[in-house]
Amino acid sequence: MALSRPVAWRIDDRLVGYEAAVAAMEERVRAIRQDGASELVWLLEHPPLYTAGTSADSAELLAPDRFPVFRTGRGGRYTYHGPGQRIAYAMLDLRARELDVRCYVHNLEAWLIRTVARFGLVGERREGRIGVWIRRGGAERKIGALGVRVRRWVAFHGIALNVDPDLSHFSGIIPCGLEGFGVTSLAAEGVVLSMPEADSALRAGFEEVFS
Description:
Shape: globular
Number of helices: 3
Radius of gyration: 16 Å
Largest sheet: 8 strands, mixed
Helix content: 10-25%
Order of helices and strands: EHEEEEEHEEEEEH
Number of strands: 11
């Protein structure tokens, strides 16, 4: 089915609280489903916090008092969000795309892979490990995470790209429940850029995958 209108984009330069972001996404999902509102990609940063997805195990929260912890309806386990990490919340109508959540997750990973490729980095998928990984020497480090919720075929939540966050903040959790793997960022891989430059790459990568 062809899309009836272009995807809208919103960029917030201030830190956005997690609960406020979820409430805004919920309202946009309702408007897409009931009122025919346009799809939306929302680029933002959160203050330091941990989120717990629907599969989160409390044993994986290693420092429960370090940052606020929010239970969320997205899939996955514990994730860190904070300044220097670009969140791209995608509110997309799968009824106008493909009614296939697995395919949608694959496309979110492709979005991250195409984004980091614009800076000369090779992002890779790994069987059984959702997200995008960078191989350096014999080690693999996660540079981008994703989490999805779908309500009546309208998807929301989205991806998180580590541009230049404080990577020590990930030590308060076992990220995504995966022990033995590190976390990296564009800056840690030698790619120093502004958030607007990261946003431009995210938008170009999105258009390559979803247009």
